């Protein structure tokens, strides 16, 4: 009887230890739409947010499913059949998601609106960037992903490299003069200033806006060639949306190549920088994309 009791006690202890261990592996994640309990190092991971995909790729974390559609060159491998296709950036394929039996789903930005529906299928987190605190929000998201997948040391190393690069850029931006950020699409143009979609260029990167008071909506303020001529920026930072999404049509370079824009300081000094459109338009605050964006601008304004 004593032996039987000891065996039962041993089993009870083992079970309690196993349950305790399981609980210890649970991570409570605070995100843009609340709080979600996630298992550490989840095996099946579906990612709708390209910024998160970019960061996970940088940290060496494998994912199982991604959305269809255009991706930057450094993420092109995810278009292969090796990765399940789970819908688009805007619309999940719920059958494909369910069939994948995910342990974690990550949404953000364009896919954030589908959070509630996806959360019914598996633990889901929303890593949408806070535009009012871009770098702080990005850092938090990177650290969240690193904590979930046990990549804290690698994340801190890469964040330090990014911080150093941004610090160097902020020093150089002081002498760059006035900057105008322009997005082109379908033969039309919009300008984006501080507080807007690409406000990080002015806020965190330290560039002086060529024009104050621009609309801060997602689509910016519609402008003309006359507007650019009158604003006369020292630098034009141009984002070609059509190039970002693989849509054919008049390129940003063709659209801006005219007599009015040709009178600006930016054009005459060859200080027109065509930003890495897929990185800026599709990815945003991913580790690799952001590092590439900072380095591209730094190289351009330093003339190296």
List the helices and strands and how they pair.
Layout: H1 2-24, E1 26-31, E2 34-39, E3 45-47, H2 50-58, E4 65-66, E5 84-85, H3 94-100, E6 104-107, H4 115-119, E7 124-126, H5 134-149, H6 152-173, E8 178-185, E9 188-192, E10 208-209, E11 221-223, H7 225-231, E12 235-240, H8 241-244, H9 252-256, H10 265-268, E13 272-274, H11 277-283, H12 287-302
Parallel strand pairs: 3-6, 4-5, 6-7, 8-10, 8-12, 12-13
Antiparallel strand pairs: 1-2, 8-9, 9-11
Helix pairs in contact: 5-6, 6-12
- Residue-averaged pLDDT, rounded? 91
- Helix and strand run: HEEEHEEHEHEHHEEEEHEHHHEHH
Structural class: alpha/beta
Query: What's the number of extended β-strand segments?
Result: 13
Helix content: 40-55%
**Residue runs with pLDDT of under 50 for 5 or more positions:** 1-9, 16-24
Shape: globular
Rounded to the nearest angstrom, the distance between the terminal CA atoms is 83 Å
* Biggest pleated-sheet summary: 6 strands, mixed
Beta-strand percent range: 15-25%
């Amino acid at each position: 009887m004593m032996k039987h009791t000891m065996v039962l006690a041993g089993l009870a202890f083992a079970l309690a230890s196993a349950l305790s261990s399981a609980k210890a592996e649970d991570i409570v994640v605070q995100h843009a739409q609340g709080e979600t309990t996630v298992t550490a190092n989840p095996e099946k991971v579906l990612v709708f947010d390209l910024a998160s995909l970019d960061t996970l790729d940088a940290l060496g974390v494998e994912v199982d499913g991604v959305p269809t559609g255009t991706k930057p060159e450094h993420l092109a491998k995810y278009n292969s059949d090796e990765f399940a296709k789970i819908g688009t950036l805007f619309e999940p394929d719920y059958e494909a998601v369910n069939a994948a039996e995910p342990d974690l789903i990550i949404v953000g930005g364009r896919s954030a609106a589908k959070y509630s529906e996806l959360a019914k299928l598996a633990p889901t987190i929303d890593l949408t960037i806070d535009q009012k605190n871009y770098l702080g929000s990005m850092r938090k998201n990177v650290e969240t992903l690193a904590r979930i997948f046990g990549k804290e040391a690698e994340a801190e190393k890469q964040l330090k490299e990014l911080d150093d690069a941004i610090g160097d850029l902020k020093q150089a931006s002081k002498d760059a003069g006035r900057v105008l950020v322009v997005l082109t699409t379908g033969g039309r143009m919009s300008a984006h200033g501080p507080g807007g979609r690409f406000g990080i260029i002015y806020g965190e990167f330290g560039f002086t806006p060529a024009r104050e008071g621009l609309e801060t909506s997602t689509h910016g303020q519609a402008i003309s060639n006359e507007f650019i001529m009158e604003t006369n920026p020292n630098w034009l930072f141009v984002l070609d949306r059509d190039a970002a999404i693989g849509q054919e049509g008049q390129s940003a370079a063709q659209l801006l190549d005219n007599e009015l824009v040709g009178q600006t300081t930016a054009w005459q000094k060859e200080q027109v920088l065509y930003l890495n459109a897929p990185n800026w338009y599709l990815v945003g605050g991913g580790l690799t994309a952001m590092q590439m964006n900072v380095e591209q601008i730094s190289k351009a304004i330093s003339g190296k």
